[in-house]
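Researcher: Please generate the 3D structure of the following complex. Treat every line as part of one assembly.
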Amino acid sequence: MRGRQLMALVRKDLRLELRTRETIVAMVLFAIVMLAILQFGFGTRDDDLTRFVGGLMWVTLAFTAVLGVGRSYVAEREQRVLDGLLVSPVPRTVMLGAKAIAIFLYMTVVEIVVIPLVGIFFVKGPYWDAIGWIAIAAVLANICIALSGTLFSGLALFTRARDLILPVLFLPALVPVVIAGAGATHAVAGGPHDMSEWRGYCLFLLAYAILFALVSVATYDAVFDD
Amino acid sequence: MVTARGLVHAYGERLAVDGVDLELGPGERLALAGPNGAGKSTVLRLMATLLRAQSGSLEVLGEEIPGGARNARRGIGYLAHDPLVYLDLTARQNLELYGDLYGIDDRDRRIDELLDRVGLLGRAEDTVRTFSRGMAQRLALSRMLLHRPRLLLLDEPHASLDARGAALLDDELSTATADGRAAIIVTHEVERVARVADRLMVLRAGRVVLDEPTTGLDPMAVRRRYEEVAG
Amino acid sequence: MTDGPTRIPGQRAAVIWGALATILVVVSTIGVFLIAPEDADQGIIQRIFYFHVAIAIASLVAFAVACVAGILYLRSRDERWDDVGEASIRIGLLFSVLVVITGSIWAKASWGTWWVWSDPRLVTYLIVVLIYAAYFVLRSSAEDDRKMRYSAIYAIAGFASVPLSFYSVRVAESFVHPVVFTSGGAAMPGTMLGWFVVSQAAMIALFVALLEVDLLGRRSERALRRLAMRLESA
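Model: Done. Output below.
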């Protein structure tokens, strides 16, 4: 029953996205613009930014995540469908899970573009050998982003100025993910090639995901409980 | 089907529902009327488990609310001002979603049957965005009936349904009594609803000022009764 | 109605905790600056440590109280728990800002620079300040029940973010900070430890006293509002 509800909600989000293509296209474009802005922001026009590869990648991904997470409940809110979901016997945790899966998938699409692009744009070192390790860290980070993002977007949903509220709530909570994502990326592609450091950051991301999963499951009922 | 005792709901300092008692048995169809801001919609949303009462007790379909809300929701059919469907999904996709959320076994057959009844079978594969307001509300009607609810909660249904939808709804309500289903119909068109309801409850400033059977009364008499108490 | 002035519950607690906090703060200040031995390496500036660390821990206590108050609010929907949560976070945030400021002063004295990103405590508390400042942004943009519910949820999620922030800045981090206080226990002489315990008690008492006073204010305000409403209807 829960599995069927979860699948139905995820399928609904993907169908809406495939029809309108609003979120993913905007996220990918935004990420590419971010990368360019970061390069120009350094002011050096340096071709080799290997040392900063972790930061470039994860600053971009964090801001792109805010953009994507902000779209989480747009259809429900603008077309006022939320009551229909809330009056149905779907557990709130299933709604949480479905939104988290959607965000996870959007972030994955963005990363499929961003991670290779970072290598092409900024790195003159041996980047491509490390891309598998970066991808693993990215998958873990996506779980973190999806879980905390779903919780905070639910909180921001019915606030005034929600477009401002979400980044203010979400970005501080994302700081540990940025630290760990950038740290893991730097460890394998930024020069040191330190696998134990990479492992430490990945374990941290796992701990973050577990902790936020627990908090979300414990509190998500109350988010929609008017 | 519904037992409410001393329900209170306030939006901040503003009391919307101020100690409402309500007892609704199987087969009863209650018209819930009152002037604007009397708390009709709030009462309906409390019954629909969309709002939580700040005090008082509420039992819906044998389930204590909020504790048993999820079980109660299986048997609630809620028709709101908004059709509660996604504009960028097709009519069928919307009903498939709700069919899965309610765990309906004969989902596809049931969808065809209902789309046929509301006259949308020919438009099943079109997105709701292309529908007129009346059509969207007829789709909402089929969404409400999809899981064969035992308690119908309708928020001013006649305001947004077209003639065809209204006829279908009246038909549905008139068979409800025989099936032992119950309905609460929020309205400000008392005469219109009097034809399909057998009891009238009037709210004023969040309180019940009238609650009496209207069986056998003609609609104009119900209207006069309403105006006596509603002020 | 009543003859004398109405007593607001909690008045006595506020007075007692206020007195206790005052005494402890005075005693610890005297102890820290006049009695405790001077650190051989760092000299007088090391004395800021007593406050820096004590406030840091007191702020964590405040955030923990807010987290528990959040859980209790969600269970009971009693607005008094919302009061406790908001007051605790307000005080905890104030304390965290003080941690950042005292840490910055310490950094200036020790390393000659106001800010060092390699100091985990400084960086962590910067993140903590950002997390809890957002709490008030959230509060100001929602109303009534939602405001209290969202605040409670955020207080819980925020408290989960705190240890995450702690560990994220420490993973694979080389500790440049002078470790006076290792996780295994105190690496300092007995009298130093003694004065640290006194400072810590002072800061926690200060938190409780501020909390009691804040809650007292809210209760009086509510009582006043009720009185006004009664007068209006009379």
